[in-house]
Design brief:
single chain, 239 residues, mainly alpha, 2 domains, two-stranded antiparallel sheet, 5 helices
Length: 239
């Protein structure tokens, strides 16, 4: 089941891809019927590069919010456990942080820099792949001799995928990673000794992650797949 946080990020990503689509369509409308259109295809790289800061800002905004929410919630739950107070008593309720209040909860700047660095690294990989797919799409249309309308339909289909499945995948990955990194940073500062790998136990869990459900390692040690926690961006790319 998708979380509200994933839905919010997915919505912002769809808006960003809509903006990108409009600029790519303008490129097609302006240059496609030019005999040297293939020389203009490289403008896709320029367009994506110009829009990259906004894309990064979207991921970072949602990532920081979920990082601090997870950190605060983890700290609260740990305090409850330490005081042996039942959560059913309703005496302690984790207070979620609103996006506008992110600045109220500051941690070690190195932690935040790490989150920013990992977010930017991941965004670059995604945008490089997206850029390559778009340029290949346009090049194929041109070399196959498609008319401008058919080329437009083909690129529209490409963006339908980006605004659908791809946006959902990115949102799930980024939110999951930020939340787990926030919890992990809390474990480290609270002196928690062990942590358990816990999956959503649904059809969205990676095949390689299913066997890890319930596994326990010392905090700071990696699980058998090389990750410190689910969504750890410093681990192997395949995971």
């Amino acid at each position: 089941m998708r979380s509200a946080e994933e839905n919010k990020l997915e919505k912002d990503l769809r808006k960003w891809f809509n903006k990108l689509q409009r600029r790519i369509q303008k490129l097609i409308d302006t240059y496609y019927e030019d005999e040297l259109f293939f020389l203009h295809i490289n403008k896709v790289y320029t367009i994506v590069e110009e829009m990259k800061p906004e894309y990064r800002a979207i991921l970072l905004k949602h990532g920081l919010t979920q990082f601090y929410n997870a950190r605060e919630t983890t700290t609260t739950l740990y305090t409850i456990q330490q005081k042996k107070v039942s959560t059913k008593a309703g005496l302690y309720e984790p207070q979620l942080i609103r996006e506008e209040d992110v600045g109220l909860f500051r941690t070690n700047p190195q932690i935040e820099d790490s989150l920013r660095y990992n977010t930017f690294q991941a965004s670059d990989k995604t945008l490089n792949r997206v850029t390559e797919n778009i340029t290949n799409n346009l090049a194929d249309s041109y070399h196959e001799g498609l008319g401008i309308r058919d080329a437009g339909r083909r690129i529209t289909k490409e963006f339908s995928s980006l605004k659908g499945w791809e946006s959902r995948r990115i949102a799930r990955t980024e939110i999951n990673s930020a939340q787990n990194e926030g919890a992990f940073s809390a474990y480290d500062e609270l002196g928690v000794e062990y942590q358990m790998w816990w999956t959503g136990k649904d059809n969205r869990v990676r095949d390689s992650h299913r066997p890890l459900h319930g596994h326990i390692v010392a905090v700071g040690n990696t699980f058998s797949n090389g990750l410190l926690y689910p969504g750890d961006k410093s681990g192997p790319i395949k995971e």
